[in-house]
Amino acid sequence: MVSDLKEKVVSSLVDNQLPCATAFDIAREMKASLRQVGDAANELKVRLVSCQLGCFQVKKSTHDDLQGAAPDQELAAKIKASLIEGHLPCAVAMKLASETGVTPRKIGDTATLEKIRIAKCQLGCF
Questions:
Q1: How confident is the model over 48-100, as pLDDT tens digits?
Q2: C-alpha distances in angstroms, 118 versus 25, 31, 88, 93, 102?
Q3: pLDDT-derived band at 4, boundaries 50, 70, 90
Q4: Secondary structure class of 125 (helix, strand, coil)
Q5: Are 53 and 116 spatial neighbours (Cβ–Cβ below 8 Å)?
Q6: Number of neighbours of residue 61 by Cβ within 10 angstroms
């Protein structure tokens, strides 16, 4: 299975990088855990990019794209109620996105505006 998973990762690269959403698709298709896909990418020295929560972007990390934006207070409250040890785990963020009908990026942006750190990447990146 490991070699099949690595082959799938390699065949799914975009500009020699693996987008987060593609990694999620690979996990579903190959019936592998997200961590296994992340580990395969790591072993292949493939960079994961385009985090669905916005965590891998320089622009996001400097918060320029959110300058002056106000968070959705209802969503912010749901995020705060979901914190584990003061952080928002990736899996919890993705579940919140699904439950609330917003994009994962909206969850990530709201967390950023509220100065909440996203932790425990399901792919093992952070």
A1: 999 999 887 655 555 567 777 888 999 999 999 999 999 999 999 999 999 99
A2: 21, 25, 5, 8, 17
A3: very high
A4: coil
A5: no
A6: 11
Q: What is the rounded CA–CA span in Å between residue 6 and residue 66?
A: 36
Task: Please check whether residue 87 is in contact with residue 117, taking contact to mean a CB–CB distance below 8 angstroms.
Answer: yes
Whole-angstrom CA distances from 76 to 71, 80, 81, 97 are 7, 6, 9, 12
Residue pair 88/79 in contact (Cβ under 8 Å)? The answer is yes
Chain-centre distance for alpha carbon 45: 19
| Amino acid identity at 31 | K
> Cα 78 to chain center, whole Å?
18
Using CB atoms within 10 Å of the CB of residue 74, give its burial: 0 to 12 exposed, 13 to 18 middle, 19+ buried: exposed
How do the domains of the chain map onto residue ranges?
A: 2-49, 65-119
The secondary structure of residue 26, as a DSSP letter, is: H
Q: How far apart are CA 97 and CA 110, in angstroms?
A: 11
